[in-house]
Amino acid sequence: MSYNEAYAEARAELDESLRSVQFRRVFSAARFSSADSIRAARRMIGAAGNILRAYRGREVMLEQTYRPDDPGGRGTLREPFETAETSRTLLADADSLYGLLAAQQGRFKFNGTSLRFADPRAARQYSDLRRRIILTLGDWRTAPDLNSGVTIPRLILALGAEVPPPAR
Questions:
Q1: DSSP classification of residue 70
Q2: pLDDT tens digits, residue range 52-86?
């Protein structure tokens, strides 16, 4: 198998793995409707994180196998650090957002379009996480070099156009 074919196979497995954990619509309204749906969203985010870590390990293996004499990575198919880090941070922020909701269970209400928190501090924390997620998605959805990435474009595609609902 060639270097390009090995990467194509690794990326196909990445896509299949994300589909298998049903990492779709993580920010849909249904994910905010109950304690069970919040826990399910966190499990999906955790599974997606594991899948990305496995993919990155495979990238290292491919580079060591096919390109051991090119430590500078010239002409590499490995995902640039910035895009890999963005995908990791995006998942961490999404998990933190749902972790906050899990911790606030019973102290917020979801009306189908927005959240109302009993604790103003929790509402601010939620809004800050939501803003970071929206900024990250917006920056990368319009990035001219999005094609150089591997994980972040796949996460953006899986997330669709939805964003977490606002806190009111």
A1: -
A2: 999 999 999 999 898 877 766 677 888 888 888 99
Going from N- to C-terminal start, the domains of the chain cover 3-159
Contacts of range 20-23, beta carbons closer than 8 Å, 24 or more positions apart: 21/47, 21/48, 21/51, 23/47, 23/48, 23/155, 23/158
Residue appearing with tokens 């499990």: 43
Two structure tokens written together for 74: 């010239």
* Mean pLDDT across 36-56: 95
Write down the pTM of the prediction: 0.90
> What are the CB-based long-range contacts (under 8 Å, 24+) for 163-166?
163/27, 163/130, 163/133, 163/134, 163/137, 164/27, 164/32, 164/97, 164/129, 164/130, 164/133, 164/134, 165/29, 165/32, 165/110, 165/113, 165/114, 165/115, 166/114, 166/115, 166/127, 166/130
3-state DSSP helix/strand/coil % of the chain, to nearest 5: 65, 5, 30
Q: How far apart are CA 41 and CA 122, in angstroms?
A: 19
As to burial, measured by CB atoms within 10 angstroms (0-12 exposed, 13-18 middle, 19+ buried), residue 58 is middle
